[in-house]
Amino acid sequence: MTHINETVLYVNLKTLEENFKCLKSKLSKDNKIVAVIKAYAYGLGDIKIAKKLEDLGVDVFWVADFDEGVKLRNAGIKLPIIVANPGSKSMDVVLKNNLEPVIFNHRMLDLYSTANSPVDIHLKFNTGMNRYGFEAENVSLVLEKISQHPNLKLKSICSHLSSSNDPNKDEFSNGQIELFNSISDTVNTFFNTDIPTHIVNSNGTLRFSINSSDWVRLGISLFGGLYHNELQQIFTLKSVISQIRSIKEGDCVGYQNSFTAKEKMKIAVVPMGYADGLNRKLGNSRGHVLIHNKKCPIIGDISMDSFIADISSITVEEGDEVVIFSPEHSVSLLANELETIPYEIMATLNRRIKRIYLNE
After folding, report:
1. How many Å apart are CA 222 and CA 15, to the nearest integer?
2. Do the bridges between strand 235-240 and strand 8-12 make them parallel or antiparallel, or are there none, so unpaired?
3. Three-state DSSP class for 177?
4. What's the per-residue H, E or C state across 200-257?
């Protein structure tokens, strides 16, 4: 593929399809899939990802705020779009764009109770994460309020597992699920019907049993950003060598002279920096990139728009490819080097990086 950009995030939509099919195979035919594409689809590009997932047969999209939902609607996305935090000033926009707000406190419930037209809502309950959500002891009061406002159409109830990735905290996770099931029973009894429920996220889907009628929220697992032997990372970030220079013993590299050569070296300047989302903690030999499949340490402080790699051990030319991460050199490994999580690395990739979508 011909392109003029030097720093490119390649996103393989075929691999996304394979991950989707793998995850779907673990579910019953009645489980609905809520695709989480907030934060620009975790940095991968929400429009392209949403259109591919819509074609593949996801049931619902989940975004963080109303702006993300409006953008999808303007791009032609027809599926239901749940807005996790619609805010208190956006109700008219939410209704106009047929978005579905998550209601998580009495202030939001009272606001949407004033809607003059039907609005699909989703109730969120706190089961132990202590972030968003009504408390379990308030469920009856919440349901009474909803029953008094026929324009409020309850589409699902949800919560969020705080530690589904950690086997050492399964007792806590199971406690969250047990409390959520109790809340669900109360809701279903009150309305004399089965309201869809969803509490499990990507790790929850991979690690916990799921009722046949539940919805599941899948985000990073679709993109292969968490390690699992059946899933593949769908994205690769590459740049190029912009300049090569030789330095001698005692020469310094980068801001604050943070690296001093102990011997003659050959170094490469790469046009990607912390403004692009490359964490500064990877500098000073903590992180590395791949050039000609060889590990090359990042030396000196990472700059806003560039970093420097030690290429003393390999033969390269200006214009040669530099791999920051790939399916083989995964974002999970990079996250370990940073003592962070893949989500943070993905979500902070600047949108000035060119996204190119592949089907191979």
Report:
1. 9
2. antiparallel
3. helix
4. CCHHHHHHCCCCCCCEEEECHHHHCCCCCCCCCCCEEEEEECCEEEEECCCCEECHHH
Q: How far apart are CA 104 and CA 102, in angstroms?
A: 6
DSSP letters spanning 131-168: SSSB-GGGHHHHHHHHHT-TTEEEEEEE---S-TT-GG
Query: Is 255 an active-site residue?
Result: yes
| Burial of residue 183, with CB atoms counted within 10 A of its CB: 0-12 exposed, 13-18 middle, 19 or more buried | buried
What is the DSSP pairing of strand 119-124 with strand 100-103?
parallel
Would you say the pTM of this structure is higher than 0.90? Answer: yes
Question: For residue range 236-267, what is the model confidence (pLDDT) as tens digits?
Answer: 999 999 999 999 999 999 999 999 999 999 99
Q: Catalytic: 124?
A: no
Count the residues in the chain. 360
The phi and psi torsions of 279 (rounded to 5 degrees) equal -60, 135
Residue pair 322/290 in contact by the 8 Å Cβ criterion: yes
Question: What b-and-e string marks burial along 51-64, b requiring 16 or more CB atoms within 10 Å of the CB?
Answer: bbbbebebbbbbbb
Among the listed residues 21, 26, 153, 255, the single catalytic one is: 255
Phi, psi (5° rounding) for residue 214? -70, 155
**What tokens does 355 get?**
């996204």
**Average pLDDT of the segment spanning 22-43:** 96
> Given the structure tokens 């989703």, which residue do they identify?
122
C-alpha 221/C-alpha 73 separation (Å) is 24
The one-letter code for the residue type at 106 is: H
1 confidence band (pLDDT: 50, 70, 90): low
Q: How far apart are CA 278 and CA 274, in angstroms?
A: 4
Answer whether 44's CB lies under 8 Å from 222's CB.
no
Contact 315, 268 (CB under 8 A): no
Q: Token digits for 335? A: 């996250």
Q: For residue 82, what are its two tokens?
A: 């749940």
3-state secondary structure (DSSP) of residue 336? helix
